[in-house]
Amino acid sequence: MTIKIGIDYYPEQWTPELWEKDAALMQETGVAVVRMAEFAWSRMEPTEGDYRFEWLDAAIEVFAARGMEIVLCTPTNTPPNWMTTRYPDVLPMDEQRQIIRPGVRGHRCNNSYSLRMLGSKFMEAMSQRYAKHPAVIGWQIDNEMHYQECHCDTCNRAFVAWLQKRYSSLEELNREWGTVVWSGEYSSWAELTTPLGTSKPMNPSYLLEYKRFCSDSVGYLLGWQLEILRSNCPGQFVTHNMWQYPNSLDYYDLHKELDFVSVDYYPNELYRDYGDRFPRNGALSLDLVRGIKRRNFWVMEQLSGAQGAWMPIQRTPYPGLIRARSWQTIARGADMVVHFRWRSAVVGAEQFWHGLIDHSNVPGRRFREFAELTREVNQLGELLAGSTIVTQVAILHSHDQHTALTLQAQAEGGMHYMDNLSLMHNAFLKMGVGTDVINWTEELDGYKLVIVPSLFLLSEEVAKRLERFAARGGTVILTNRTGVKNMRNVCEMLPLPGLLAEAAGVVVSEYDAIGNSEHRIRNAEGKTFAAKQWCDLLELRGAEPIAWYDNDFYEGVPAVTVNKLGEGEVYYVGTWPEPSYFYQLFEGILKEKNLASKLQLPEGVELSIRTKGEESFLFLINLTNEKREVTLDVPYRSLLTSERLEQKMTLPALGVDVLTL
């Protein structure tokens, strides 16, 4: 499909007269898609069974008449007040068994019978009404799904039933969880509940299974909606707008049956004072989203202005940032970029989550930047259509590892799974080498280099897959905290790295959780690098050391090793060194495998390549507030300016260019 630009719009918040004016301006600007109705349940069903879609019909026609396509949303994220009043089982309960009252959104128990009963009736009516509308191209289920940890009677029964499918008997569960500790054995299924109270620490196997159940419960909420949409709307796509990682959900399972992945993308630098642990760079978020189904995706909400509501009002986007971040998403696989939102809301909790047009209703600098972006994308959309990203480097990502390591902190000061994954991803980003970030259970055909951060939980299947990949000529890079536990979150009675010890050619004789204490490692050339978090003291069992600890009682002990395995090799990194170490390590491997980028990138400039047949499109994006100069390997032509670029090119602050030979 042609790459396009869209808008998130809330017609229920504006007058029909304003719809007309907005639609005319959107048409003039080149907007192709409008998303609507995600939070409008009370307007579409003001009382039980009283469906009122006429206003939505009218809104759709206003935009469709001007050539725009429509994406409709199922509004189950915001159950209306009549529902939560008459059917209190819709509301979740906290761990003290107190009802969580509505006040924002997402106030629902994912397993609620009433929510499914009433939601199904509503969705049957809505989907049948718009199934054959010529302007409606698809559906977004719910909004930014996350699990609400619910402890109601329904969830307790559902949790026990979920466990009974995973364990053949209560005796097996007791054995696998090790409930004998602290006299926690169950003598009846009736004794099992969701984790109540606030006592910590709890049994880690129990907690991990509960987190998995919560994620599956969100899948249940999505699943019955998907079933209705598939039945009634066979010609329209179905997706969901996931929130950025890290998140509570296993998005790999959640998206299995959806047509494609969508994401709401708000670059992390805007959240520096908010406290959330976002990946260190937006490129990782986008690579991870593309890796969920290993194909192109949509951005369903894109940065449009300063954020506020969930935090104090943040800085306004610098001139060029909206355009640069939008092109960044396209560069990394987005085929549609929908901006949130058209206009800042004048009512409600998100009044200061700014849109493209401010409360004044006077289009300003940000809107003009959006209009320029839309013009450029419409200019190149057909040319770029069908292009994809192909790379021979993969980083394995695991939702289970993220969850398990969050449940049990491994080192003082934090040893965060996503932070460490980001540290390694960032090295490739700086070198201009594309990476796929894929589910750790995926097949590895087509890759030459696979990065495997902390397989804290390890299965025999994954261990054998990595061994086969290396034996057939691939390179695997393992890190510390690999092979610690099995998939039940129980420690293995094996020398670390457990099932991968033979492949790595090392065992861990001892480890030191150094946390924020800075240690140093030394490579073969005598250069030293800082290291934090963790130190595995490695005994060689066939591997060759390539870096050693340079201080403490284990000075001289191997810290990083490489082991020949068949036609390939397995590296083991026993600590978390500073970024420059990963850069030089990966650089050497990439050159050896002829995977290194031919362009030398200055700090803050990202390179991504989309290909279509024999044609390649190089996206260069300067994400700094200063101009940057890029040295080119061969002459290129700019698709944005048609300029012929020979040896060097200059990118202005937050500048973008798309090159081809």
Spatial ordering of strands, largest sheet: 11-10-12-13-18-17-16-14-15-19
Sheet-strand content, in percent, reads 15-25%
**Could you give the distance between the termini?**
23 Å
Assign a percent range to the helix content: 25-40%
Category from helices, strands and their pairing: alpha/beta
How large is the radius of gyration? 26 Å
Mean pLDDT: 95
Major β-sheet annotation: 10 strands, mixed
Q: Could you walk me through the main structural features you see in this protein, from its secondary elements to its overall organization?
A:
This protein starts with a strand and ends with a strand. Helix 8 (204-232) runs antiparallel to helix 13. The radius of gyration is 26 Å and the shape is globular. Residues 270-280 have low confidence and may be disordered. A hairpin with a 5-residue loop joins strand 23 (636-638) and strand 24. The strands form four sheets. A ten-stranded mixed β-sheet has the order 11-10-12-13-18-17-16-14-15-19, sandwiched between helices. 31% of the residues lie in helices and 22% in strands. With 661 residues, it is of the alpha/beta class. It contains 17 helices and 26 strands.
Topology, element by element:
Blueprint lengths: L3 E5 L7 H14 L3 E4 L4 H4 L9 H11 L4 E5 L7 H6 L26 H18 L5 E5 L12 H14 L3 H8 L26 H29 L4 E3 L1 E2 L8 H4 L7 E4 L16 H12 L3 E6 L18 H11 L2 E6 L25 H20 L8 E5 L1 H9 L9 H15 L4 E4 L9 E4 L7 H12 L3 E5 L21 H4 L1 E18 L4 E13 L3 E6 L8 E8 L2 E6 L1 E3 L1 H14 L12 E8 L2 E8 L5 E4 L4 E3 L5 E2 L2 E4 L4 E5 L1
Parallel strand pairs: 1-2, 1-9, 2-3, 3-4, 4-5, 6-7, 7-8, 8-9, 10-11, 10-12, 12-13, 13-18
Antiparallel strand pairs: 14-15, 14-16, 15-19, 16-17, 17-18, 20-21, 21-26, 22-25, 23-24, 23-26
Helix pairs in contact: 1-3, 5-8, 8-13, 11-12, 14-17
